[in-house]
Amino acid sequence: MKYFNMEGSPFVEDTGGEHEKEKDEAEEKEEENKDDPQTKLTEGKQQKLATWGPCFYNRVGKEVYNYVGHEIVIEEGLDSYAGMIWPGALALCHYLDTHRDQLNLTDKAVLEIGAGTGLVSVVAALLGSWVTATDLPEVLNNTRVNLSRNTRGRCRHTPQVAPLTWGYDLEHTYPPPVYRYDYVLAADVVYHHDFLDELLVTMKHFCKPGTTLIWANKVRFETDLVFTENFEKAFHTSLLTEEGDMKIFMATSREGDFEMDQKLEIKDLLGEVDAKTGEEESCDDKLYCACQEVGSDRLEDSGEQEVEEEKKLKSEEEETVTSEDSKTDEQKEIVESISEQEHLNQTAVRRNWAPSIICRPDKDIYHYVGQDIVIYESIDSFGAMMWPAALALCSYLENNKHTVDLQGKEVLELGAGTGLVAIVASLLGASVTATDLPEVLGNLRANLMRNTRGRCRHTPQVASLTWGYDMEHAYPSPVCRYDYVLAADVVYHHDFLDELLVTMKHFCKPGTTLIWANKVRF
């Protein structure tokens, strides 16, 4: 008898002769011991044990691999395809391990679809990324075990596991404003099944502008070639490596092809620069505490906001030119700095693939709630700097525990930046969700994890939040309710103050307390 794997190669062979001989010997022995009283007693005990004793019909295979300088032990499961190690996973792991300079996964948000045994996710986590491994709910137990076994105590970030059914209600379960990733990984997800259309829909859902999709696959069937053709039509693709039937593709979104999308991206980047041009001036820090009353009026959004913002931006540029002579030296420096940053960001749009290091991040140590807190500033412009109001709010929370008791409370922070306020709130016992723009979340996550792991009752969460943008859809009021909303130095020289107020009102419902610290500059 021969047993074959999925590709037709025999891996177990039994000639049958030895088996028949052993069977005859067993029958003879059984006949001899049939009338033995001791044998009957033993059989009775075995009969009782059989009613509860577990049975093993198959022994799960265990494989040992070596990537990123670590020995990785993977136990295969009984979950059919998802419980096996596939060649595409091995090829992708090898590529990630040997091309670290081209694909730097450190502190990047990575999603794996069809994670199976979890080998690719383990390697990505060992390379320093924030990994979310997804697959069908029924196969995730083995994925969790393999991830935990091979990453605990070895990785910068603890990998997460989540269920994902391709093409099923993705906008609801994984809304794009919240779930954005730097990389999407997939290995051997294309084989003989009826869900190739759903797979392509899922890839397009997660691979938005700014996301890179890396897909490794071994061609087995004609349907694989059809999917590859549709894949190349759906994305900008390039072939990273090819060895026989094994190919690894890199893909990016085609959504940025349209001229209108390009203009919006440039406008968003310029808006972010304008939003972060605060310079410190000599003025006292102020704390504001607001509790929204029941029945307060809802702030209405204007349907012509984008047009008004564009007109306002042009008007401000004209005023800047006409009043240049009357400005102080300090104001002139601010304007020059904005112009320089606008030029840099426009260049970044044109060359969004080119990595660059503007400066070396600074490290500061603070002491709150009896703990040393190490904060790394980043190169993410104003969102990754330490602002004075954050320090003022941290001191206030620490010194007024009886007035503001955060123990066991649900807390949301707007514009979390480096994460210092969120860390202090977590150390004070709160369950914290720290939010900011997607591009500054990498450093925010790192600071939160570094300073709260093993110290806090609740692990703080990080989420993307753009003020005033489809708030009810991304953060529905019946679900996202908080005891406290915190904000520090979120008001400065930018064009999104109306959106900020809309966001504050959205989250500050009856029963919620908003605490806002701010330094007056303009």
TrEMBL record:
Basic and acidic residues composition bias: which ranges?
16-46, 324-333
Q: Transmembrane ranges?
A: none
Give the Gene Ontology MF terms in alphabetical order: methyltransferase activity
This protein's UniProt keywords: Methyltransferase, S-adenosyl-L-methionine, Transferase
What's a GO biological-process term for it?
methylation
Extract the Pfam families matched here: Methyltransf_16
**Which residue ranges are recorded for the region named Disordered?**
1-46, 299-333
User: Can the keyword Methyltransferase be found in this entry's annotation?
Assistant: yes
Which Gene3D superfamilies does the record match to this protein? Vaccinia Virus protein VP39
Please give the name of this protein. Uncharacterized LOC107103558
Native species: Cyprinodon variegatus (Sheepshead minnow)
Q: Which lineage is the organism of this entry classified under, starting from the top rank?
A: Eukaryota, Metazoa, Chordata, Craniata, Vertebrata
